[in-house]
Amino acid sequence: xxxxxxxxxxxxxxxxxxxxxxxxxxxxxxxxxxxxxxxxxxxxxxxxxxxxxxxxxxxxxxxxxxxxxxxxxxxxxxxxxxxxxxxxxxxxxxxxxxxxxxxxxxxxxxxxxxxxxxxxxxxxxxxxxxxxxxxxxxxxxxxxxxxxxxxxxxxxxxxxxxxxxxxxxxxxxxxxxxxxxxxxxxxxxxxxxxxxxxxxxxxxxxxxxxxxxxxxxxxxxxxxxxxxxxxxxxxxxxxxxxxxxxxxxxxxxxxxxxxxxxxxxxxxxxxxxxxxxxxxxxxxxxxxxxxxxxxxxxxxxxxxxxxxxxxxxxxxxxxxxxxxxxxxxxxxxxxxxxxxxxxxxxxxxxxxxxxxxxxxxxxxxxxxxxxxxxxxxxxxxxxxxxxxxxxxxxxxxxxxxxxxxxxxxxxxxxxxxxxxxxxxxxxxxxxxxxxxxxxxxxxxxxxxxxxxxxxxx
Length: 457
Ligand code: ADP
Ligand code: MG
Description:
By secondary structure, the chain is an alpha/beta fold. The chain contains 22 helices and eight strands. It has a five-stranded parallel beta sheet with strand order 5-6-7-4-8, sandwiched between helices. Adenosine-5'-diphosphate binds at residues 122, 126-128, 133, 158, 160-166, 291, 323-324, 327.
């Protein structure tokens, strides 16, 4: 096989597995140059395509290896956009828009020191401080600067979409950047539960505990998911004691204060309150506006002629509680204006705000309740769906769960990936696959929509 053949088959394989704007605008800007033994050299044109290529290199490499039936290594040659194709870079910008969320979920294990993936966009510099999060921000920063000595454990709580995960990652990213001698572990609680189950099933308690005990900083996200999971609570309790006794830092996030954590053992709850408890509340208007401006600035859109202040005001006044929604509306406004070549106006913003309002996630719908409902329908165990089985009767409910979590809660692919302990691209593929199956198979569509209806009521 020569490079052209392998690349063509790789593209055929990835088409339909990648999101369409990414495929059309980015993959087609990659050309195969040569294949020498197992080394495939690709030419990538333009900075955005390059950035995207770097994020998805592993997936592309895997696809090429599958086609070639040997493990392929990729080498890359970068080519600047020439004048003619600079016009085309506008199209790349549109692709950027469409996959902006994907990019932000790129997983970045660095230097092999973080055993879980931290989002490198979630840092202190990108976090806008306001009255609602000031204490939490300052304490998180102090903890990151002096892990183990100022607030241990740090317990961060607040409603969904207010920046808890952002701060948790920011602490991890800061420590990784400033203290190369320290090892950081980040886990979403659902991933933790799943991990405990796998180890216990195989009787590998010691191995499990050891995998945590050489860490210096333990970051546990959404600890309320440990509710009712006694085995996992016990493991957390043991880890907590060891970390605490050794003055190693623990940070957890939660959707409520410790004293409201029903379903968690008293001994665990009491320990969670031993350090500092910091809450994040909904941002006020000024903070919301500042967050919108920061985001525009970051994406180089802060040009008042193309994004009038009154539109920012309209978004900041209407979306009051959830920063994730605030960002979502902004991204949609920008994308829609660009695709339709229309100016950014109040009526465009209102149209988008009205569209999302009915979709607002009722707070009692959680990923857990969605997975539970899907498992109930397919009559399979939650543990199996959260596990690694590749059996069809498990894979389908797993994919449907991912799809419905994304569809109903609008959680990021990365957050969903954490729950299932998967790479975010496999969540992306699963969601696309389910959408595709729904489009092709009316019976399957009816099933999926039926489950959704039971969840959303
Ligand atoms: P939570 O974990 O509390 O549900 P996240 O940390 O996932 O919320 O935040 C939701 C989104 O809002 C993320 O994209 C995050 O970067 C953004 N965000 C939250 N708070 C802030 C802030 N103060 N400044 C900038 N972005 C923020
Ligand atoms: Mg979170």
